[in-house]
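Thread title: Can someone regenerate the structure for this chain?

I was given the following input by a collaborator and told the matching structure tokens would be attached. They weren't. Posting the sequence so someone can regenerate them.
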Amino acid sequence: MSHAVYPSLAGRRVIVTGGASGIGAGIVEAFARQGARIAFLDIDADAGAAIAARFAPGGFHACNLCDLDQLAATFERMLADLGGVDVLINNAANDDRHSIEDVTPAYWDERMATNLRHMFFATQAVIASMRAAGCGSIINLGSISWHLGLPDLVVYQTAKAAIEGMTRSLARDLGRDGIRVNTIIPGNVQTPRQERWYTPEGEAEIVADQCLNGRIQPADIAAMALFLASDDARMCTGHDYWVDAGWR
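Best answer:
Regenerated them for you:
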């Protein structure tokens, strides 16, 4: 299968959170193939180093995004290394299953830090650079899960629903600076992590509920990210872009 080439992405400075595995690793690979300059961070140092060796030598930074001091210091280093930033992709998340009864205040706070809070502060960290350049693209990763109301994900889905509202607000506040903000909403993407949750029968049920045959791959989500980051999407902001194979 051939892939689109976006000349505007060549040399573009891109930061990806959660880039060591799954969708994030697919995004790092896709931007590398476009000739972008990439910095990415992840809490998994070994996996991050492996992805960096393949697609972004010297571009990996180990970071726990729940630690806001560490996040700020890591972004300062990445911005210095890149000389600024043109594209931020807020991808990092964790969809561990949980029951309502088992949620404690501490668990709630930790899940919100993992799935929502860091997106705002990562965005805050790149605004000055993008404003100075007069343009930028911020892409937040949402989730189809809350639109479907899937079970055992209430805190995760609450955070993911909030991302869409945050995107709309940021797009309004930053648009006059030439900064675009959008959300990608993936369907059920076939990654090693997701395969932990589904039996072959469960996988078949997902495909049966889609309009299209086949399983969504990280490269399918990355393809949308490439478009939204490129100059071809220069008038796209404040909206949600679904890559779900028509899952219902």
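The mean pLDDT is 96.
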